[in-house]
UniProtKB/TrEMBL annotation:
<feature type="active site" description="Nucleophile">
    <location>
        <position position="377"/>
    </location>
</feature>
<dbReference type="Pfam" id="PF00232">
    <property type="entry name" value="Glyco_hydro_1"/>
</dbReference>
<keyword id="KW-0326">Glycosidase</keyword>
<dbReference type="InterPro" id="IPR001360">
    <property type="entry name" value="Glyco_hydro_1"/>
</dbReference>
<comment type="similarity">
    <text>Belongs to the glycosyl hydrolase 1 family.</text>
</comment>
<protein>
    <submittedName>
        <fullName>6-phospho-beta-glucosidase</fullName>
        <ecNumber>3.2.1.86</ecNumber>
    </submittedName>
</protein>
<dbReference type="InterPro" id="IPR017853">
    <property type="entry name" value="GH"/>
</dbReference>
<dbReference type="GO" id="GO:0008706">
    <property type="term" value="F:6-phospho-beta-glucosidase activity"/>
</dbReference>
<dbReference type="GO" id="GO:0016052">
    <property type="term" value="P:carbohydrate catabolic process"/>
</dbReference>
<dbReference type="InterPro" id="IPR033132">
    <property type="entry name" value="GH_1_N_CS"/>
</dbReference>
<keyword id="KW-0378">Hydrolase</keyword>
<dbReference type="InterPro" id="IPR018120">
    <property type="entry name" value="Glyco_hydro_1_AS"/>
</dbReference>
<dbReference type="GO" id="GO:0005829">
    <property type="term" value="C:cytosol"/>
</dbReference>
Amino acid sequence: MKTYSFPKGFLWGGATAANQIEGGFQEGNKGLNVADVLPGGKERLNILMNAGFDFEIHQDQYYYPNHEAIDFYHRYQEDIRLFAEMGFKAFRMSIAWTRIFPNGDELEPNEDGLIFYDRVLDELHKYGIEPVVTLSHYEMPLHLVKEYGGWRSRQVVTFFERYVKAIFNRYKNKVKYWMTFNEINSALVMPINGLGFSIQKEEDKYQPTFQAYHHQFVASALAVKLCHEMIPHSQIGCMILFAPVYSFDSNPENVMYALQEEHLFNYFCADVQVRGEYPAFMKRYFKEHQIELEIQDGDLELLKEGAVDYIGFSYYMSRTEKKVKTKEEATQGNIIGGIRNPFLHASDWGWEIDPIGLRISLNKLYNRYQKPLFVVENGLGAYDKTEEDGTINDDYRIDYLCEHIKAMGEAIEDGVELMGYTSWGCIDMVSMSTGEFSKRYGFIYVDKHDDGSGTLERKKKQSFFWYKDVIASNGQNL
């Protein structure tokens, strides 16, 4: 079996999001955020993908899994100890904006929230685990959504800047690696999560979406500048959802369509954050969709000054496209669109499995930008079964991760500069897209179920021991 050479100091670890693991949704003076009003189950995906959501909690009608999640808020010491046992070099986490500024527009931060993350970061450092912190991960303060219209409002840039200053000032000696907005490009299909609003049925979606994006780009650039000024020894990156787009066949019409889709979804946000300017291909797109951005004096200069240091990205699947497609051809589980690829198998949730696509992604990104890359999400959501003796044999997860790690090894041989790999959902948590607990990604099983029942007991899966060996051997033992 071929072995791969990963760089010395490679950041092996796992990734999570505050809203999907913490729980304690009203403890420590935390305010409500967007994730707190999203119910679990199929209804969540309908809300994410369709118009007209009211951003209210209907406790008599729905179950809200993020309210307790897996109770990391009270169990972080136990969980971090398990991460350390696996040998994690890094742990990707996010800070809940509403723990620091409960409404989002306060003048002073909430000390209870700051203390909580002090404790989490100190616990990670106790075991020599490097925190990789996302500033905003799908949990915008609900007050900013209701009172300001989310990122539609330029005022939100000021509120975000205040939040970032408070975070950087507090944790400047505890965090070396930062990212601004999680999967920023995902708002092209799910604006609720990233931009904090739902397109109304009678409303043209293009103008508000791209104006909100401009505000977010300005906010990201401000965060980068602040990071460089306040924590010069640290690095700060963007974070995108990357899915290479294949043409269904060699028909030039389909090839051109796939290229346009890849430009818009994979490269638009990355170009602005990495190169510091709007890409040329968006000029035609803005013209064709009658989009006129309100750009203030100094914004374009700020985007240049606020270019990121590295590119963090998630990789779960590739996407296959043709210009004209039928409903029958569409993939069932792939929320970013496309048609079924006859050469790929799919997960329990219909996400097509394509390890070579990760190597393709790494090559495309590195050759386009020449910036260090960091795979900060990758994993398999699957149904796990606990055997009578208590073991959880998730060989399917090991196979999935093994093939994707091999693809990273090949990309490194191709010349790609890769900083690290944090597998998504290193511990079972609430699924973002469906709000389910049964969609499990972790090396650590959590006894929590879709109806809210369960003891929250943690158990090591077979993949726990496999990944421990991978890390200990720096990717030699796969």
